[in-house]
Amino acid sequence: MSKQNFSINQDSPFQFTLGVIGYPLMFVILIWLVFWFEIRFGYDFNYLGVRPRTFSGLRGVLFSPFIHSDIKHLFHNTIPLLVLSTALFYFYRKISWQILFLGMLLTGLLTWSIGREATHIGASGMIYLLASFLFFKGIFSKYYRLMALSFIVVFMYGGMLWFIAPVDPQISWEGHLSGLVVGLLFAFMYKEKIEKSPKYEWQRQDYEEEQDAFMKHFDAEGNFIENLPDEDSEDVTYNYIYKERTED
Membrane-spanning regions, if any (predicted)? Predict the structure, then answer.
């Protein structure tokens, strides 16, 4: 039995690596650990949330995505956050960390600026950020894979659009709206950074012109070589045997 070597195609911008699922899992696990620590040791970290237009409330820009009011709040944010961040790391791996960190800061600051006088906590702003970015960037790209991702995001989470309006006083619609706006802003900012698989052989990173079968038909001056010598080939003799057709 012969052995076969399997390797990741480095030319493909869409590659599944351990980080694609590993980083989102780490983020989600950290959120659950914070909630477990509060329950286990009787702490309440709500005071670390975003408090609009107060100096102490600025710390919520960093801490609020990791703080949730109860298990229901935490559970509702966990799965969308995991799914959307995994899509981000798979389809946009080169800019994924920029989207996460800068997005978290800008979403938090915008919430701090426009939010009503309340404590804003939870990762829902990050969810709206990711959903907005994945949707709009896929549409702007006009690339079939990323556009398909946009339609999947709409199909799965299109109903979230309802909650960017003040329909429930217990929900931070300001955080949702902030995430949506920042995601749209990032889709414009990174509009030119569209990941596409190489379409032609000469677009690949490992392409060597000297080894290209087509380019071997031209000399250094660009003249066409009609009969290309093949140094590696050997003379082959073909023997044909003709048989007369016999009628039954």
Answer: 12-37, 99-115, 121-139, 146-165, 171-190
CATH number, domain containing residue 89: 1.20.1540.10
Enumerate the β-bridge partners of residue 120. Answer: 50
Distance CA(179)–CA(164), nearest Å, equals 9
Number of domains composing the chain:
1
Lookup result for tokens 């894979």? 145
- Structural domain including 148 reads 18-189
pLDDT digit string (tens) for 178-210? 999 999 999 999 876 565 555 555 455 555 555
Dist. CA 151–CA 203, nearest whole Å: 29
In this structure, is residue 196 part of a structural domain?
A: no
Integer Cα distance of 117 and 128 in angstroms:
21
SS3 156: helix
Q: Which two tokens stand for residue 90?
A: 């798979």
Q: How far is residue 126's CA from residue 27's CA, in Å, rounded to a whole number? A: 12
Q: Note whether residue 213 is domain-resident.
A: no
